[in-house]
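Whiteboard transcription, Tuesday session. T.W. wrote the structure tokens on the left side:
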């Protein structure tokens, strides 16, 4: 771990708040699926402590960009680095880097045959070599933070979608990620469960977590995002502060998109 004399004490042990310096740097990234150019010369920098909302029509490359950032997808050209380290191709370096990048998916992806508690302790024990008792204590604190500590010994299938997604967030926090990527984290939820997950996300943002969130939840963007990144056809078409983006989008693509979702 690089030490940094200017690092202020984080508000919780989980979150790094050396705000301002580049954490995720995406430079000239291109990707194709066969003939389809899905990421077109993507350039963006997410600074530490920054919350970026990625928005755009279906098929515009939002998920592919997220997956490229933690190397679930390869890229054809360009560079992506996390905290100054280029994304490695494979092996131990990749595993380490991936554990710095939390990922929360639309479909929760909890381990179905493990309890809620085990879902949260597994990574810290297996990947970080944490002692079971310590991992459990930490997991319980995180489950409490997302409001599901009383579900710790249940199986995921016994929980509501909103509860499962909050467990998934706790699981990703348990690895002390430097950044959390969330790909449409509330899209699979029944409407009455969306807010309980958004509230947790807003809390993380307020605590200084660096987040990249694909979502069309404007309330979250307005409350928590520093920047909205609008993608269409594989390119970043517009980048602006939420209020500015939602009230006066510049491009026809963004105007058209917003007219459909607002
Ligand atoms: P979004 O998340 O914005 O809806 P995606 O990143 O999922 O968009 O997809 C971007 C484009 O790439 C879409 O046209 C999609 O059909 C295509 N695509 C995504 N994944 C694959 C894949 N594994 N193979 C081929 N095409 C893909
Ligand atoms: Mg997607």
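and on the right, the sequence the group agreed on:
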């Amino acid at each position: 771990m690089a030490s940094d004399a200017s690092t202020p004490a984080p508000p919780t042990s989980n979150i790094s708040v050396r705000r301002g310096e580049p954490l995720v740097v995406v430079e000239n990234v291109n990707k194709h699926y066969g003939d389809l150019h899905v990421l077109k010369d993507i350039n963006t920098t997410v600074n530490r402590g920054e919350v970026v909302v990625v928005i755009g029509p279906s098929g515009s490359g939002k998920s592919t960009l997220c997956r490229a950032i933690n190397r679930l997808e390869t890229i054809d050209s360009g560079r992506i680095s996390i905290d100054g380290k280029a994304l490695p191709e494979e092996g131990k370096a990749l595993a380490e880097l991936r554990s710095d990048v939390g990922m929360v998916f639309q479909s929760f992806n909890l381990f179905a045959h493990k309890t809620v508690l085990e879902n949260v302790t597994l990574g810290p024990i297996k990947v970080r070599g944490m002692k079971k008792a310590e991992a459990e204590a930490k997991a319980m604190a995180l489950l409490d933070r997302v409001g599901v500590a009383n579900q710790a010994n249940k199986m995921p299938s016994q929980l509501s979608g909103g509860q499962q997604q909050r467990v998934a967030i706790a699981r990703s926090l348990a690895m002390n990620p430097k950044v959390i990527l969330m790909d449409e984290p509330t899209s699979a939820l029944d409407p009455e469960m969306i807010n309980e997950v958004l509230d947790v996300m807003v809390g993380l943002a307020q605590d200084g977590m660096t987040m990249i969130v694909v979502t069309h939840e404007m309330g979250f963007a307005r409350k928590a995002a520093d920047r909205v990144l609008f993608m269409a056809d594989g390119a970043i078409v517009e980048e602006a502060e939420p209020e500015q983006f939602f009230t006066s989008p510049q491009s026809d693509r963004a105007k058209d998109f917003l007219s459909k979702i607002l």
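Someone added at the bottom: The first helix runs from residue 62 to 69.
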